[in-house]
TrEMBL record:
Protein name: Exocyst subunit Exo70 family protein
Species: Anisodus tanguticus
GO MF annotation, one: phosphatidylinositol-4,5-bisphosphate binding
PANTHER family cross-referenced by the UniProt entry: EXOCYST COMPLEX PROTEIN EXO70, EXOCYST SUBUNIT EXO70 FAMILY PROTEIN
Chain residue ranges for the region called Disordered: 11-44
GO process annotations (BP): exocytosis; protein transport
InterPro entries linked: Cullin_repeat-like_dom_sf, Exo70, Exo70_C
Gene3D superfamilies: Exocyst complex component Exo70 (1.20.1280.170)
Family: Belongs to the EXO70 family.
Composition bias type Low complexity, residue spans: 13-44
Exocyst complex subunit Exo70 C-terminal domain mapped to chain residues: 254-617
Keywords per UniProt: Exocytosis, Protein transport, Transport
Keyword Protein transport carried by entry: yes
Length: 637
């Protein structure tokens, strides 16, 4: 290692004199003669001595690695060939720069300064070459994924002091995760990052920051731009987006969702780490450099959601893709702020905020359109067997999918006007407890409002049944479907148990009305005075009346469908409890009197067990109808 140059070394260096003062004693004339001190005027100044010594030490090292003098220096990498010599080279440049600054204060037109400046230019040219080679030859080890696996320790010392005080193998990078990349590759990344920082600090302190930054930006920007392109993100005009078919738009949105995750977690984060490390000595250069490298790619990436929100063809199913994009940005927002935090990156943060705003506006518009479509529904054809209406299936599947985005919808709907329900309908009908002390969130109001519109539509559709009992079964079926969808989704947390309990009571009321109107005439057919004795003919009439009523009811209701297992079982058990015990009592009391007569089989057509079996087969409906009822509407996502 080259010896250090210090004040003490130069001040205490022994100097020989051309005059031997020990052989003659000084006289008055000697001291008074100016010629006796002429050597003082020719003696080099301190700055000259410093410059001479620095040139003497720096010139051999710098000229050895002058790429224009030898083939060896032209094709060989200094940092790859001999890292210890590379550090000595850097020290020579630092010392040369300090000596030039010191010497220029005394003699700014010195020939030594010209010589030193020439050496400095050669040295910087060498450093430029090394900087470029490290960046280009280590692209694989300096890719963003590799960079994000390491984190450097904050230190107030410069990289030069680290190299002066510590051994070659003491890197200032601490590996924080190494499962995806081997330790060997991590070491290569660490060494490359430290070498880049060493060169950058030397060039910046020597006044060659512009040349250093230019090389860094050209290489690193190409990596970022290429990565964004490979992730499937490209700059699109508003007309291109508007003309796209939904299938094409959907593919591009899926590509974007993947790209934004990779870009934020790896691409921009890795570049931020590398840039912060390499240019740690200069905040201004660090921020400007990172911004210029990442700005174009970031603007292309984060302007895409705004473009889609403003210019893509509108449809109800697209709202889920808009929500996907909004949710992706919202989830990555803390990371985005940590990466693009400086004033230089304000334009990037502004673009991201604009995309969120435009996405929110489009989502609110889509929800309003969905509500309008729901309110305009006017289909009048009754569903066979009082089953579940297509509208119920489609609306509830759409709403439950929306509820999966409850977190982001809470933000989006908070800026929208509340539904008009609170001023037009009582709270008991609304089904969500609300007070000034504990106001209902806007998202809960909106979902309750949409379901209420659906229930109102179902009420109007029930009126088209000629058989009122089927109308009630239709309402019970559809409301039960709504409740099941609420219980099995995030709607459960948005609407609450109070809402569910109130609507479960309504299902019970609808079911009770169905039983009363659909089956009471069967029970009434068995009415008689149990205290009075009856003639055989009267008993026969009651059996025949029951047979007719039961067969008629069973025939009519055998086509009915109850898709929900619990509701189906509850209905059958309730009907059986009201009919079978009454019939069994009558059957056991008068059966023996009838079976002794001829044609008794035509009179007593059902045993109590037969009645129970017949009732247990109800509400399954035709197989194809039952299968259809379990169809799940799912907007393409």
């Amino acid at each position: 290692m080259a010896p250090k140059i210090g004040m003490k070394e130069f001040c205490c260096s022994p100097r020989s004199s051309s005059t031997d003062h020990s052989t003659s004693s000084p006289s008055t004339s000697q001291f008074s003669s100016p010629s006796r001190f002429s050597f003082l005027s020719s003696r080099p100044s301190f700055s000259d001595s410093v410059m001479n010594r620095t040139l003497e030490m720096a010139e051999p090292m710098i000229m050895k690695w002058n790429p224009n003098t030898t083939t060896f220096a032209k094709v060989t990498s200094l940092f790859y060939e001999n890292r210890r010599e590379a550090k000595d080279f850097i020290k020579c440049v630092y010392n040369l720069q300090k000596a030039m600054q010191f010497h220029s204060t005394e003699n700014s037109k010195s020939d030594k300064l010209v010589r030193a400046q020439s050496l400095m230019q050669i040295a910087v040219k060498r450093l430029q070459k090394e900087f470029y080679q490290i960046l280009s030859m280590n692209r694989a080890h300096l890719d963003p994924e590799s960079i994000t696996t390491v984190s450097y320790r904050t230190s107030t010392r410069s990289s030069m002091s680290e190299f002066e005080d510590e051994d070659d193998n003491d890197d200032r990078i601490v590996v924080v995760t190494g499962e995806s990349i081997s330790e060997v590759l991590e070491d290569v990344s660490n060494v490359a990052m430290n070498d880049l920082r060493l060169i950058a600090e030397c060039m910046i302190s020597s006044g060659y920051a512009k040349e250093c930054v230019k090389i860094y930006k050209v290489i690193r920007k190409s990596i970022i731009d290429e990565a964004i392109y490979r992730l499937g993100v490209e700059k699109l005009s508003s007309s291109q987006v508007h003309k796209m078919d939904w299938e094409v738009s959907d593919v591009k949105i899926k590509d974007w969702l993947h790209a934004v995750d990779v870009a934020v977690k790896i691409l921009f984060n890795g570049e931020r780490i590398l840039c912060d490390h390499v240019f740690a000595s200069n905040d201004s250069i660090r921020e400007t450099c990172f911004t210029e490298i990442s700005k174009d790619a970031a603007m292309i990436l984060f302007s895409f959601p705004e473009n889609v929100a403003k210019n893509s063809k509108k449809s109800l199913e697209k709202v889920f893709r808009l929500l996907d994009m909004y949710n992706s940005i919202a989830e990555h927002w803390p990371e985005i702020e940590a990466i693009f935090y400086s004033d230089d990156e304000f334009v990037i943060r502004s673009q991201i905020s604009t995309s969120l705003v435009k996405l929110g506006e489009s989502i609110r518009t889509a929800l309003t359109e969905f509500e309008t479509v729901l309110q305009k529904d006017s289909s009048k054809t009754p569903v066979a067997g009082g089953g579940i209406h297509n509208l119920t299936i489609d609306v509830m599947n759409y709403i439950t999918l929306l509820a999966d985005f409850s977190n982001v919808l809470s933000e989006i709907l908070a800026e929208a006007p509340p539904p008009p329900i609170k001023s037009s309908l009582p709270e008991s009908y609304f089904g969500v407890a609300d007070s000034d002390e504990s106001p209902v969130p806007a998202i809960s109001l909106r979902f309750a409002w949409l379901i209420l519109i659906l229930l109102c539509k179902l009420d109007s559709k029930a009126k088209h049944y000629k058989d009122v009992s089927l109308a009630y079964l239709f309402l019970a079926n559809n409301l039960q479907y709504v409740i099941v969808k609420v219980r099995s989704s995030n709607l459960k947390y948005l609407l609450g148990e109070n809402w569910i309990s109130k609507h479960e009571e309504r299902v019970k009321q609808f079911a009770s009305n169905y039983q009363r109107l659909g089956w009471n005439h069967v029970i009434e057919s068995l009415q008689h005075d149990p205290s009075a004795s009856m003639a055989p003919q009267q008993v026969k009439e009651i059996f025949k009346r029951f047979n007719s009523s039961f067969e008629q009811a069973h025939r009519k209701h055998s086509v009915c469908v109850v898709a929900d297992n619990k509701l189906r079982d509850d209905l059958k058990e309730s009907i059986a409890r009201k009919i079978v015990p009454v019939y069994r009592e009558f059957y056991n009391k008068y059966r023996d009197a009838i079976v002794r007569e001829r044609h008794s089989a035509h009179v007593i057509r059902f045993s109590p067990e037969d009645v129970g079996h017949q009732l247990s087969d109800l509400f399954f409906g035709p197989m194809e109808l039952e299968n259809y009822l379990f169809f799940e509407f799912s907007p393409s996502r």
